[in-house]
Amino acid sequence: MTDDRKQKAGKMKTAIKNIRDLKVYNLSYKLAMDIFVISKQFPKEEIYSLTDQIRRSSRSIAINIREGYAKRRYENVFIRHLNDAIGSSEETRGWLDFCRDCGYISKEQHDCFDKQYDEMNAMLYSLINKWHSF
Predict the structure, then answer these.
(1) Which of 100, 105, 112, 113 stands the most exposed, by the fewest C-beta atoms within 10 Å?
(2) What is the reported pTM?
């Protein structure tokens, strides 16, 4: 094999062997952990409303991806879980809007989260449309 062909082969994506090989899962898990950390500073009176809700919705994304991946043999079930993950992502984004508007996070923090959720949602849509090639 020539050096050029070796380089091209090295750039090819690696096979998905387990859930941690999916970039979208890793990003969703990281974002859920980031939400957990930032929500520790929310006021105590928000513990049973906003704090609980944003933690649940952000974690639901990773869990739906994981559960769908475990059932990927059944296309409709896999796709349903990925769609549920997108729904949870949008729910989390709604809670982030409340966090910003209530003054619990800065506009810059909100914008950073928003950008990452855009990226994750794009990855989820791509996975829904091209999951056979993963």
Answers:
(1) 112
(2) 0.85
